């Protein structure tokens, strides 16, 4: 196992990481987008992005796009390279505010978190459409890990923390259990060649209706390219 440092809240760090990884000339068969913060107070990343949107979504959007060429070169007809992005059931109540993606008008930790998780689902579906249109041997799927007992909840109200401490053993998944669907998406033979799926408890399920809005997917993708400073090659794909 070899580790390379990457701060998903920093566009500079992401670019440096990709440069270091590519210098190793290694194939890339599985990319898991799993970093995240939840319900943090209003604050910005070093690039000026609202933290939920900047770290949870834009960081993964840039990382994935910068690694796409390597993923495409690594996948084959019989063994596709796989991109797995971790979202949340919170995306079901999320609303994408294209005119205010940074939540500047009115900040809500819950709203900002839910929006970032909805953006990840929209991104995955659009990415799979582009991969299929280009005939790439790469699949993209999105995962809901469920309610997992991790440090992600450190910014919730103290009452919720107490309730979590008392009931986690009964209602929360362990980190190992929470990782199972991500691992399933990454290595299961059943998922070979399957993309554009929303997975929960190792089963394909339906995401929020709004996530299937192809026009919204396209608009978010184009805006995301502008925000992270990469060219929108998808303009050439219907």
Automatic annotation (TrEMBL):
Q: InterPro entries attached here?
A: NAD(P)-bd_dom_sf, SDR_fam
Respond yes or no to whether keyword Ribonucleoprotein is given for this record. Answer: no
Please name the pathway. Answer: Protein modification; protein glycosylation
| Primary location class | other
Keyword Repressor in annotation: no
Its cellular-component GO annotations read: extracellular region; lipid droplet
Instruction: Write down the chemical reaction(s) this protein catalyses.
Output: a di-trans,poly-cis-dolichol + NADP(+) = a di-trans,poly-cis-dolichal + NADPH + H(+); a di-trans,poly-cis-polyprenol + NADP(+) = a di-trans,poly-cis-polyprenal + NADPH + H(+); a di-trans,poly-cis-polyprenol + NAD(+) = a di-trans,poly-cis-polyprenal + NADH + H(+); a di-trans,poly-cis-dolichol + NAD(+) = a di-trans,poly-cis-dolichal + NADH + H(+)
Q: What is its EC number?
A: 1.1.1.441
Location in or out of the cell? Lipid droplet; Secreted
Q: Which GO terms describe its molecular function?
A: oxidoreductase activity
> What keywords is this UniProt entry annotated with?
Lipid droplet, NAD, NADP, Oxidoreductase, Secreted
Its biological purpose is as follows:
Oxidoreductase that plays a key role in early steps of protein N-linked glycosylation by mediating two non-consecutive steps in dolichol biosynthesis. Acts both as a NAD(+)-dependent dehydrogenase and as a NADPH-dependent reductase during the conversion of polyprenol into dolichol. First catalyzes the NAD(+)-dependent dehydrogenation of polyprenol into polyprenal; polyprenal is then reduced into dolichal by SRD5A3. It then catalyzes the NADPH-dependent reduction of dolichal into dolichol. May also acts as a positive regulator of starvation-induced autophagy.
The text of the family note is: Belongs to the short-chain dehydrogenases/reductases (SDR) family.
Specify the protein name.
Polyprenol dehydrogenase
């Amino acid at each position: 196992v070899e580790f390379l440092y990457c701060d998903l809240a920093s566009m500079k760090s992401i670019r440096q990481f990709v440069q270091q990884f590519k210098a190793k000339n290694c194939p890339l068969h599985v990319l898991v987008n799993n970093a995240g913060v939840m319900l943090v107070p209003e604050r910005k990343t070093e690039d000026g992005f609202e933290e939920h949107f900047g770290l949870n979504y834009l960081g993964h959007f840039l990382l994935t796009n910068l690694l796409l060429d390597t993923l495409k070169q690594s996948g084959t007809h019989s063994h596709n390279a796989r991109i797995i992005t971790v979202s949340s059931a919170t995306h079901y109540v999320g609303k994408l505010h294209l005119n205010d993606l940074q939540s500047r008008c009115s900040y809500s930790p819950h709203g900002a978190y839910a929006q970032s998780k909805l953006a990840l689902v929209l991104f995955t579906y659009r990415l799979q459409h582009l991969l299929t249109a280009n005939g790439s041997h790469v699949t993209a799927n999105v995962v809901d890990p469920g309610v997992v007992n991790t440090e992600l909840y450190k910014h919730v109200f103290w009452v919720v923390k107490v309730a979590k401490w008392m009931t986690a053993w009964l209602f929360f998944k362990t980190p190992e259990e929470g990782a199972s669907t991500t691992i399933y998406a990454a290595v299961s033979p059943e998922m070979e060649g399957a993309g554009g799926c929303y997975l929960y408890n190792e089963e394909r399920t339906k995401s929020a209706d709004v996530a299937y809005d192809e026009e919204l997917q396209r608009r978010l993708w184009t805006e995301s390219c502008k925000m992270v400073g990469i060219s929108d090659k998808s303009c050439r794909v219907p």
